[in-house]
Amino acid sequence: NMNNSASNDGSTKRRKTLVYPKTIASINNLSNDILATIADFLPKTSRALLAVALTAPALSWRQRGWKGEPNKASKLIISSVKPSVPFSSLIRGLCREDEMGDRRRLRINVSESRYNEAFEASLKQQLEEYYEGQWGILDFVDIEKSLASRLTDDDIGAILVCIDAKNNLKRLKLAHCFNVVGHGLNPLRRSTILEKIDMGLVRQFEAPEMLDGARISQEVVFGILDSILCVKENSFRRLQVPMNW
User: 8: pLDDT confidence band, cut at 50, 70 and 90?
Assistant: First the structure.
């Protein structure tokens, strides 16, 4: 709004007055359907992270003993995993990050001239497998390494609770989760359907290597794994450990 005011010399000046709306836009004001539509543009793992954030802070899931369930909006968000955007845009972004960082050796031998082609083809194959597996697979391969490397045990544990991993998850792959110690795997205790945990911390098509800064703990992980193997009906088949062990 513009208001008139008199100055010392008698002239009239126009002064702006800010009028604030009665309500301020917030993500909490959005309907569940709109939130689900927004999530359709996110990679699968980012969907799970959004579902966690909309329900409660990651830390609170651990404080509640890894108990609870996502709210209605979050359930709707994780009910689908296929992004609305094509895989090609997701792959381009991940390939661009790889080109700008320290490239890792692939499991297959390729010349330098064919590295980009082989990397992209292998990444596409791993992503297709991940998305076809619904929440039977949790793999951090579809988010940037810069994000995955900052995730904490609270983040991992909250995701596992949110997707009901104890009753759904068959394969867990902790690609680039260098900051994780292992406490976040507690929601998987006594799981009867978990088949594989990959803690190599690299993509499945990359050669294993020693990784500086990896925090994953043998003692913590083996304690959780022991609770799974003690269940007679367990389905566990394979543990991929870091080279640092």
Answer: low
